[in-house]
Design a protein that fits this description.
The chain is α/β, with parallel strands linked by helices and about 325 residues long. It is about 40% helix and about 15% strand. β8 and β9 form a beta hairpin.
Length: about 325
């Protein structure tokens, strides 16, 4: 299991990863991108930014990097960085298939990505990923499973994924939407020849959206590595947008609202890797301070009071514009 490499790491940041969703394409739904990225969002500009973030993350102990076929040129940018650092052999690389990027490097596309969990899409995107990442790929995840996804019942797809697992690739899935817990439990029941198919799960969990927590604990108990995404709620928990309680606790700790938000996730006993979606080196450094935030019971209680009903949370997320 590639995540065994992380288990032996001893740096405070070893359980924090870097996701490239926000920096490998010009448009995304994170709040504050106009300030973060500015006007120059050319391929070369975002490639340079991505490489600078990867350099900074690795130097500060981050060892898991997360990309996807639909994150613009994330796989390409990461592959380029890995080629320039052949000495780096202690990182874990995860990607995802199931969405196709369709925005053609614009921010105002009518549709930025198209979802398709068919076997045909898997085969096409697996070939594309292999072309870029090759043997450096450790983990391949079905991107954003929901309870109605055909990938949960497609036996031919399951057999193909099990074949990839037998060849050494870890197979996982990510979830989204208000029924994440149902999706996780349905995926845990998927087996091939009596053996569980999935070895990792990546789900949204943050101060505002905690509904997947019990199911993620079950996944952890079943032996899966749990990866947490959107710990910053797409920027809603950053300093300029964070609820008053988060900002007050940030003042009490002397660190940023982002560090407080991510610290809440890190303290969950089932959380194996918590992703930073930083767009700047400064944001990354602030995010990584989450590893040293020590929340007391009163602070935890105040954060717990901020939880939203899942459907409300996901409806609001669905209304965030692509910047």
């Amino acid at each position: 299991m590639p995540f065994a490499r992380l288990a032996t790491a001893t740096t405070p940041t070893c359980h924090l990863g870097l996701g490239l969703a926000a920096v490998a394409r010009p448009g995304y739904i994170n709040l504050g991108r106009d300030t973060d990225l500015g006007d120059n969002r050319s391929v070369d500009a975002l490639r340079t930014r991505t490489h600078e973030l990867l350099d900074a993350a690795y130097a500060q102990g981050v060892r898991y990097f997360d990309v996807a076929r639909s994150y613009g040129r994330s796989e390409e940018f990461l592959a380029d960085w890995l080629k320039t650092h052949p000495e780096i052999d202690d990182v874990v690389i995860g990607s995802k298939w199931g969405y196709t990027y369709t925005a053609d490097w614009t921010t105002d596309a009518e549709q930025h990505e198209v979802k398709d969990h068919s076997l045909q899409t898997y085969e096409r995107q697996r070939a594309e990923t292999d072309h870029l990442l090759g043997a450096r790929l450790d983990l391949y995840q079905i991107h954003s499973l929901t309870p109605d996804s055909p990938a949960l019942s497609d036996k031919e797809l399951h057999a193909r994924l099990a074949q990839a697992a037998a060849e050494g690739l870890t197979i996982g899935f990510s979830t989204s939407g208000p029924a994440q817990a149902d999706t996780v439990r349905a995926a845990l029941a998927v087996t091939v020849d009596g053996e569980p198919l999935f070895r990792t799960v990546q789900s949204t969990y943050n101060v505002l959206e905690t509904s997947a927590g019990p199911a993620l604990a079950e996944a952890h108990d079943a032996g899966l590595t749990v990866i947490v995404k959107e710990g910053m709620a797409n920027g809603r928990l950053a300093a300029g947008q964070a609820p008053d309680a988060v900002r007050a606790i940030a003042e009490e700790t002397g660190l940023g609202a982002d560090a407080v938000a991510l610290a809440l996730v890190l303290r969950q006993p089932w959380a194996g890797v918590v992703l930073s979606g930083a767009a700047t080196a400064g944001q990354l450094a602030s995010n990584l301070h989450a590893a040293v935030v020590d929340l007391d019971e009163d602070q935890l209680s105040r954060l717990t009071a901020l939880v939203e009903e899942p459907r409300v949370y996901w409806e609001r997320r669905g209304q965030l514009p692509w910047h």
